[in-house]
Structures are given as C-alpha cells and as structure tokens.
C-alpha cells in the first residue's frame, strides 16, 4: 500500500492511502478477491502517521481509478423520475435502466447500472495514543449538494413515513447487500435521500476520481482537527475492483480560502490562457503588418 503526505498551496494539507491490496505486504491483500455478497465482509487495518497536524476542517474522500463512470450507456442507466419520488416510476422504472430494471419480476429501486455499482466500503478512522485507539468522529451529513438533497432526490410519498411500506413491491439492486430503505437508521438520511447514495449518483467525468465520504469538523480553535501522530484506518472491504484493474484509496484533505488542492483546473486554465494570449499576439501582428494594404480595385494612373 502507498501512503503520501504533502502540503500544497494556500496551506492545504493532504494524505492519500491506497488500500487496494495488490501488494503482498498490504494488510488488505487478503481481501483482494472479495465479492459483492461476501458474508461477513472482509476487514483490514492500515496504520499510518501524520507528520503534520491538520488545522482546519478535514474532508475525507474515497477514490477510484480505472472506473469509467463517463460511459454513455452507464450515465443514462437511471430513472430520474423514480429518484424524485414518483410513485408510478417506482413500480414501473424507465427502460433506460435495463438490464437492472427488474429482478425476479419485481422492479428494482433504485434501478440502473449507476445505483447497482454504488461504492459500499466502510471506512473508520482512529487515533492511536499509548496503544489506545480513540475513534475520530466522522460526519455523514452535509456531503451532498444542496440541490441534489432537497430537489432532485425524494422518497416516495404515501400514508405515514414508513419507508418499508412505501417501497413495498420493489426489490434491491442486484449487487446491494440490503434494500434502499435500510441504508441508514436516521429517517432524514435514508432511502433515496441517503447522502452516500446521492454523492455516488453524481457521475464523474474522468476514470480516476474521488468522492466526498465524510467530514471531520474542528471542535475548537485551540487544537488542530487531526493532531500529528499515529492513526489507523479500519476498512470493511466490500467493493471489488481487482477484476477491472482498478484501485481504491482514502484521501484526507483540507481547504484554504482558495479552495482545495487539485492542480488540474489550474493547469488547464493556465494552458488555455497562454495559448489564447499567444494567438492574440500573432493575430495582432498580422493585422498591423498586412491589414492596412490598399484593397481598392481602382487601377492607379
């Protein structure tokens, strides 16, 4: 496994842990060939050290590589009406969801390939102090876009708030270990409005991507959010990636007033801006050198 730690511009700190387990020395190597329905799930623990403290709020991401969420058929494989709580679409999903539209003659909720492939590893973080492990509080709410949580995703409507009854007549996605109405014990984070599910349903543009998993809030201004020292990451390894040569990683990152540490957009903007500036200078030169020629068709005397 790989552990990387660095400090970016604007005092942004970041740490990356690859826990795919392809290396024989990795604690997660035993879980490499895990299947979707492994019972009980394979678990592994990776110990690491923070050389520098993380002062501000910390964002915890999971990252995947070689996973093409931008494939045309994959992106279309969903039913937005169903996800918005439409009762008719719940029992009669869109044909775009095929082949994950029905299972055993029951409509799948949520249907489609995107939902069926939802990331389901469980990550827990602990601080180690004198051989004592103290759990780090990970906040699972507030990780999704407000418009997704409050506008695009809705649970079905009906008498009462019993999601088990509201989803009656449907079945879970093929690769899911439990139905959608059992994603969380809290009513405002269960069913189609579960924030882990909402985050996954916003597809990535590139085959290597990361998605927000949890938040670690700073408790006071006198202590850093994560102190320098020893930590351990407990992983319930449920998500298979070895079959398509994918990789999995956990990322811890802070942000500054300029945003997070992601150089792609900065490099892209600088490159495109430089090209535009160069072309502007070239065209200005051509205009001044050749643009004042006499274009009159009159033949001089």
Automatic annotation (TrEMBL):
Protein name: Cell cycle control protein
Source organism: Zonotrichia albicollis (White-throated sparrow)
Top-level taxon of the source organism: Eukaryota
InterPro entries noted in UniProt: CDC50/LEM3_fam (IPR005045)
Gene encoding the protein: TMEM30A
Pfam families in alphabetical order: CDC50 (PF03381)
Subcellular location per the Swiss-Prot or TrEMBL entry: Apical cell membrane; Cytoplasmic vesicle, Secretory vesicle membrane; Golgi apparatus; Membrane
Any GO BP annotation: phospholipid translocation
A GO CC annotation given for this chain: Golgi apparatus
